[in-house]
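To the wet lab folks,

You asked to see what we're planning to order before we commit. Fair enough. Below is the target structure as tokens, and below that is the sequence we designed to fit it. If anything looks off to you, flag it before the synthesis order goes out.
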């Protein structure tokens, strides 16, 4: 049975909730191959004191380890918030086939920097309100 994008985005949101609980920017991500999650991650920049410890980077690393390959060309990635340019670069370098995004990131999202998504399908606004709400809740206390 083929699972719908909403199912996998809910799994990414669960990862974002982990980040939120740890006072990290609440972004979550899962990498899917053949209808199965093979990599997941949430932002751990503060926890790991690592500016590259974004949800996408951790999920891609986990998926690559799982498959034993740096290429994830038969995989899809689900991210609660539009990836930054660094993470988009990693997604592109991993040759991930499809990107599913919860909500757009108007300041640091890759679309602000690049409009060339040639060879990659991008679907946006999947469970957008849930992704936005989690971000709003996180930043209420931070500002």
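Sequence we intend to order:
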């Amino acid at each position: 049975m083929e699972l719908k994008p909403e199912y996998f985005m809910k799994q990414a949101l669960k990862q974002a909730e982990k980040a939120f609980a740890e006072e990290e920017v609440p972004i979550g991500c899962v990498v899917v191959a053949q209808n199965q999650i093979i990599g997941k991650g949430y932002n751990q920049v503060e926890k790991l004191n690592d500016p590259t410890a974004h949800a996408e980077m951790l999920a891609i690393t986990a998926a690559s380890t799982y498959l034993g390959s740096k290429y994830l060309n038969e995989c899809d990635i689900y991210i609660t918030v539009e990836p930054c340019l660094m993470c988009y670069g990693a997604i592109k370098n991993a040759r991930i086939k499809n990107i599913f995004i919860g909500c757009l990131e108007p300041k640091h999202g890759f679309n602000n920097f690049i409009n060339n998504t040639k060879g990659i399908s991008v679907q946006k606004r999947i469970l957008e309100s849930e992704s936005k709400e989690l971000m709003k809740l996180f930043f209420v206390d931070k500002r």
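Structural context that might help your review: The beta strands are 28-33, 36-42, 75-81, 98-103, 121-123. The chain has a mean pLDDT of 92.

Thanks,
Computational group
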